[in-house]
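pls ignore typos typing on phone
cytidine-5'-triphosphate + seq
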Amino acid sequence: MSPAARPSSKTSKRTAKALRVVVTAGPTREYVDPVRFLSNESSGKMGFAIAAAAAKAGHHVTLIAGPVNQPTPQGVERVDVVSAREMLAALKESFADADALFMAAAVADFRPRRRLSGKWKKKEDGADDAVLELVKNPDLLATVARRKGKRKVIGFALETSNGVRRALEKLRRKNADYIVLNDASALSAGRSSVQVFGAEGEVARVEDRPKAEVAAVLVSLLDRD
Ligand code: CTP
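k done
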């Protein structure tokens, strides 16, 4: 782009309001051995749509993505990670300089206690059962939001029952400013319905819209006081 075509930071309204926004997206993978892992159905679509909408709104976006098959949205800086602990390390680094976080990733709650260096073999005695020992992963959202100061933190809740009660409980427990409640049908779909809760109760609701539209509503949470 020639210097003349570049928007001036003094004249561009979008640049004046530009925030540093971190978005996490997709699943994490927790490896059992070199070829097997625990993960979930997350496609990353919602997080990628939020990153795209935030960049379109003029924000500086860092997208921390688990293993997904999604193109990087225009103008977004992408950091690829695999496990929950890798995501936490990338998140801590980006959140240090950020103004806001959308924690849309479907982080695996548990990981195998040990990652085997060779392939996990069936027992030679022909046993029909096996035990995989799991340990809890850190709660990434709660970890970084604990000392968030003025940074705006938006978490997600995927619930199959008692959604509103559980979303409000997560809002408090994870020290988020907002929690976006959705259900399992949204996991790899192109559309989604969400309810957004803040300390003041429900602040937004979107019914069965394409994720790009849902994302634009969520990004507008950054304009609220
Ligand atoms: N989350 C996180 N780290 C984890 C698990 C979840 O940061 N280890 C974040 C998700 O990115 C999401 C929010 O926490 O923004 C809610 O995730 P969810 O899996 O619904 O909540 P859990 O803490 O796992 O609670 P529960 O198992 O009771 O549903």
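The CA atoms of residues 170 and 179 lie 7 Å apart. The chain has a mean pLDDT of 91. more later
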